[in-house]
Amino acid sequence: MSNIIAIIFDFDITLSPKFQQEVIFDDWGVEAKIFWEESAQKIAQGYDMEHAYLKTFIDYGKRDPKYALNNQT
What we know:
Elements: H1 22-28, H2 32-44, H3 49-63
Helix pairs in contact: 2-3
């Protein structure tokens, strides 16, 4: 028996009709357009796209605990 766990994530809408992050936006009640605009501001500051949106997730969690991402949620 193996303890290997795989996580598959679709970053570029090849497997789903929307960005997978939108499930989180829906749960949080956040407009995707606003989230992506905030991420774009980070790209303008020098972040690449993946790090920009991950940093935006972190920033949301720092603003309000209801946005925190953890194993429970």
